[in-house]
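subagent[fold] <- orchestrator: predict structure for attached chain, return tokens only, no commentary.
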Amino acid sequence: MHSGVVHFVFIKKNGQVREAWVTLNRSLVEKHINNRGESREIYSTSAFFDVEKGEWRSFRWESIAQIF
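subagent[fold] -> orchestrator:
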């Protein structure tokens, strides 16, 4: 995720299956970083930037169903 866009499918907490194209590439998300958010690790989740929605989201690693 740090070097480009990753495509994966995960299962949301409510059971819904979600497909996402995500990144952590600093050059792609720089304008969306505000340093005001909480660390997602306190919720046992990892943050990612959804390139389709243009927003930050989070997921649990055990919820990943498929990585392309």
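orchestrator: received. Logging for downstream: Residues 26-29 form the longest helix (4 residues). The helical segments are 26-29.
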